[in-house]
Design goal:
Elements lengths: L16 E9 L10 E4 L4 E4 L5 E7 L2 E8 L6 E8 L7 E5 L27 E6 H6 L7 H5 L5 E3 L9 E3 L7 E5 L2 E3 L23 E9 L11 E7 L8 E6 L3 E9 L6 E10 L1 H4 L7 E15 L3 E16 L2 H7 L2 E19 L3 E20 L1 H7 L3 E22 L3 E20 L8
Parallel strand pairs: 1-7, 11-14
Antiparallel strand pairs: 1-4, 2-3, 2-5, 5-6, 8-13, 9-10, 11-12, 13-14, 15-16, 16-17, 17-18, 18-19, 19-20, 20-21, 21-22, 22-23
Length: 438
């Protein structure tokens, strides 16, 4: 049988759009006014107002380089600024103050045997939203993108799992933080003791940037020997509501963002469902997984220096197994492998001129189980629906407080507390077969 497939494409002339954003101090979150912004390729300029807001109007879609400068701040170069037709995301730009220096007499002494190097910066790689969504052959998957970094390798050398190793360490020696929610494994069907699975459950379109530490891990993170991946999500649009629906033969996805009523904050909501049963008709697959994930973020600014953040993300996966031997022994049954993970947090952020504080309360639930159920016909005959269930259930409750004190341009003092409680247990249920019903 010969099958022909065709695709129809309709192209229209791109239309100009606007790019809006805000500039703020990375230390105290204050708005930066009178900052100069320059789109290099188009030679367009803009100035931020008293609230740090700026706008470029009538810009043709494309990828540009932006240069930002402000008094008393280090100049910032932002590559790969993507401008689309119609509506663009609000661009948030953080700037670092330039340390004030009074130069005295400088004496340079060189001795190749006595000179010591200054402490190096943290072994950290920062990836932007553009890099996460435009790295070739990664399918916008965060784990697969991290595999492209030097010193990181694919554990299984398989296209079906996205586990990775850092400098030959163990997969369990890595940790992920998604907006202050600590996850050992942010993937669908993520087995305990690994850092990978079928697909990462975090929507990379919602990520502002991430820091990937492979050494000199800061003390504010949980102690891990290999790596820490700190994923920071962006806030929803404060200007327009946006909706995105994606549908194909394996996935249905819906995402929306925008301002909350009465401009009290913003929201991000995303949900995706992957079901490969349709492809099973064309390929010789045994077990077919169904993957579901969701992600939400609500951001409530309280004045200029405070904010309340509510986060939630999770996954529910199921794989129906075709066990012929068990059917022959016990009758018509359905065997399923179930995995679920759900995390949520409430956060309070406080920014001052010389002080910054975060308080985070989070909850994480993970379950990996195996279920075996009778079919409806067998239940009607014997009166039982469930044959057996075995589940590994883990819960994590965490309370963190992190405070930073900025003493001048050179000194910073950090102090914090991390309270963590882990609950682990096994759940096993087995039903015997009753007398046959007549």
């Amino acid at each position: 049988m010969l099958i022909f497939a065709g695709t129809f494409s309709f192209a229209s002339k791109p239309t100009p759009s606007s790019l809006n954003g805000k500039i703020f101090d990375i230390q105290n979150n204050h708005h930066i006014s009178n900052a100069s912004l320059f789109l290099k390729e188009l030679k367009l300029t803009a100035i931020s107002d008293s609230t740090g807001f700026f706008s470029f109007q009538s810009v043709m879609p494309g990828i540009y380089t932006m240069i930002v400068a402000a008094d008393s701040y280090d100049s910032t170069i932002i590559p790969n600024v993507v401008i689309k037709s119609k509506i663009n995301d609000l661009l948030m730009i953080s700037m670092q103050k330039t340390p004030s220096q009074i130069l005295q007499e400088i004496v340079i002494v060189a001795n190749r045997f006595d000179v010591k190097k200054n402490d190096q910066f943290h072994s950290v790689t920062r990836l932007s939203n553009f890099e996460l969504n435009n790295t070739a052959a990664t399918f916008n998957d965060i784990n697969r993108t991290l595999q492209c970094i030097p010193g990181v390798s694919n554990q299984t050398n398989s296209d079906y799992f996205n586990d990775f190793l850092v400098r030959g360490g163990n997969p369990s020696e890595n940790i992920f933080i998604v907006d202050n929610i600590e996850l050992e494994n942010p993937n669908h069907f993520g087995l305990f003791g690994t850092n990978g699975g079928y697909l990462n459950l975090v929507n990379s379109a919602f990520v502002r940037d991430l820091d990937f530490y492979t050494g000199s891990i800061p003390v504010k993170y949980s102690p891990k020997l290999s790596s820490v991946t700190d994923i920071r999500l962006r806030e929803g649009s404060l200007v327009n509501r946006k909706y995105n629906i994606e549908f194909n033969n394996m996935m249905l996805g819906f995402a929306t963002e925008g301002p909350l009523p009465k401009s009290i904050g913003s929201y991000l909501i995303d949900g995706q469902a992957f079901n490969m049963n349709f492809m099973k008709n064309f390929m010789n697959w045994g077990n077919v997984p169904a993957l579901h994930n969701y992600q939400t973020k609500f951001y409530f600014p309280i004045g200029q220096n405070q904010a309340i953040v509510l986060n939630a993300l999770g996954a529910y996966d199921i794989m129906n197994k075709d066990d012929k031997e068990m059917r022959m022994f016990i009758g018509e049954t359905q065997r399923s492998l179930i995995y679920s993970q759900h995390g949520s947090s409430i956060q309070w952020h406080l920014f001052k001129e010389s002080f910054r504080n975060y308080i985070v309360a989070s909850f994480l639930y993970r379950r990996f189980g195996d279920e075996e159920n009778f079919t409806k016909e067998y239940k009607d005959k014997y009166g039982f629906k469930k044959v057996a269930e075995f589940s590994d259930i883990r819960k994590n409750i965490q309370l963190k407080n992190s405070s930073s004190f900025f003493m001048g341009d050179y000194n910073q003092f950090d102090i914090g507390i991390n309270l963590n409680r882990n609950l682990m247990g096994l759940n096993e249920i087995a039903n015997c077969i009753d007398e046959e019903r007549f």
